[in-house]
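User: Can you help me understand a structure? I only have the sequence.
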Amino acid sequence: MLDVRDEADLPRALAEYVADRLASDTGSPVVATLSRSSSSPEIHELIRDRVDSAILGPLQDRITGPDARLRAGLATALIMGTGTLRQLFGADAVRDYDREAVVDRLTAVFTACLTAPTR
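Assistant: Let's start by predicting it. Here is the structure, written out as C-alpha cells:
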C-alpha cells in the first residue's frame, strides 16, 4: 500500500487498499484483537506499536511538509476506522457500490488528510 514511487500517488494507493479491505470477505486481525481485548492495556500497547511501525510511521516518513505526523495520523485513523466498519457490517458496507466510485471518494478523503497545509 505504501510502495508507490510518487507521493502524489499515495492517496489513490491508500484508497484502493481500503476499498479492497472493505469489500473483502475477511476481517482485520488487528481490529478483531482490539475488540476482544478492549480492557487489556498490554494488548493495546502491542497493537499501538504495531500500527505505528506498520502504518503510521512509514506513512509519516513518506510524506513531506509540515505536520507530517498529524497528517499521517489522520490517514491512519481512516484506515483503522474502515476496519471497524468492515467488522460491524461486513462487505455489505460497500458491496452495492462500484469499486471505482468508492476509490474515487476515498482518494479525495486521503488527499485531504495527507496534503500539507498551505498557510
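Now, to help you interpret it: The radius of gyration is 15 Å. The helical segments are 10-23, 29-36, 41-62, 68-89, 99-114. Let me know which part you'd like to focus on.
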